[in-house]
Amino acid sequence: MSTFDSDSNGQGLQTRLIHTPPADASGFNALPAPIMRGSTTFFENTAAQRKPVDQLGLDYSYGLHGNPTQYTLAGKLAQIEQAKHCLLVPSGLAAITLVGSALLKTGDHWCLPANAYGPAHSLARLWQSQYGISFDVYDPMDAADLERRLRPETRLVWTETPGSLTFEVPDMKALTAVARARNIPVCVDNTWSSGLHFKPFDHGVDISIQALTKYQGGHADVIMGSVCSNNTALFAKVENINRLWGLGVSPDDCALVLRSLITLPLRHREQAAVAMRIAQWVSSQPEVDRLLHPAFASCPGHNNWKRDFTGSASLFAFTLKAPLADADAVRFVDTLKVFHIGYSWGGPESLALAFDMPANRRQHIGGSTLIRLAIGLEDEADLMADLQRAFAAIRVGAA
After folding, report:
1. What percent of the chain has pLDDT over 70?
2. pLDDT of residue 397
3. What domains are there in the chain, each with its CATH number?
4. 49-73 residue pLDDT tens
């Protein structure tokens, strides 16, 4: 189209630049969801502006609360996790904080697994010291331990599957059964599976959070989180706090995740397959004490993974045999050239981190010296060669 009506209708140029409507999009049809930006949204009349807002519906009262691009992404994520409700937040940690803030108040108590994402434990300590919300840490591999730690004032059970860093896979049905017997909501951090291989609402979970920064973003260029649920009453509490806190997400970031979702199953499958082969090889190295990958029998909770999951991710870890220690793990990681040193996973780049695990995190993994690998999309041969150099480096160092 190159023909336009440039009649001023008696208005000045500045007014026309602001008020000229966008091009008619009714004949345009393409795969990508359009990026709908806007802070102020226009109402047809005052009655529409004053109409009560349905917080669980489409709300176009103000750009902070929702826009078509954001709702399109939330709808697709709900399909993946088979959820009725979904909202987006600026990060995975924001999702954790949001759920806890919606369900807990001063005098309440909640339970976290020992293998939960580290900042969740930091958050629990902060809330206890500043807001009087107490907590207990339970063994995720022992439902009886969770039951012993529940109190009359317990209002939330937090879970993660598999565990952060150590990759234990709990018996989720056993954990949720303990909580449900006392009518306590259960939330799971379902980031590792991306919702593809573990369906939390089939296992008694009330709320599922994810860091969309990982596989859903897929290209290491966006940070975002999600909260999904089939429990309307609980989700309404979360949505209300979300609005009061003003946790908005950029439609441009939503468009990036929407773009990546198109290839999510393909990327996830390829990265997981390469990770399986690399993990098998890593497990055969004489310096490796234990492979921590849920798809392998050496990983705690492997049978739970076989029962509850339909696949795996490309993130795993392994421990080193004594007398190898943290200094050897650091040498291993610092030798790597194709792998980068960095947090997160699920992007095209492979990552490695060395951890000196504290005593309270060694219960199910044995040794303290742990290396985590996130397998990206580089050539498998290059990744293998890089790991071979790193293992050679610690052999020389230990000689």
Report:
1. 98
2. 65
3. 57-261 (3.40.640.10), 264-398 (3.90.1150.10)
4. 889 888 888 888 888 888 899 999 9
Nearest to 212 by CA among 198, 220, 224, 228: 224
**3 state SS of 364:** coil
Answer for the pair 66, 57: CB distance below 8 angstroms, yes or no. Answer: no
Q: Residue 80: left if φ>0, alpha if ψ -120 to 50, beta else—which one?
A: alpha
119: its two tokens: 């900042």
Query: Are 294 and 309 within 8 A, CB to CB?
Result: yes
pLDDT for res 399: 60
Q: How far apart are CA 66 and CA 332, in angstroms?
A: 46
C-alpha–C-alpha distance, residues 369 and 292, integer Å: 12
Residues 6 or more apart from 180 whose CB is under 8 A from it? 186, 204
Alpha-carbon span 308 to 318, nearest angstrom: 23
Extract the tokens encoding 389: 């150099």
User: Which of residues 386 and 19 earns the better pLDDT score?
Assistant: 386
Instruction: Give the CA distances from residue 291 to residues 203, 324, 364, in Å, rounded to whole numbers and listed in that order.
Output: 26, 15, 12
What is the pLDDT averaged over residues 292-310? Answer: 97
| Cβ atoms of residues 83 and 96 within 8 Å | no
> Average pLDDT over the chain, rounded to whole?
93
- Residue with the two structure tokens 């860091």: 211
CB 145 within 8 A of CB 176: no
Q: CA torsion angle for 50, 56, 59, 62 (degrees, to 10)?
A: 80
**pLDDT of amino acid 338:** 98
Count of C-beta atoms within a 10 Å radius of residue 230? 18
Rounded to two decimals, the pTM is 0.93
From CA 333, how far away is CA 297, in angstroms rounded? 25
**Mean pLDDT computed over 216-242:** 96
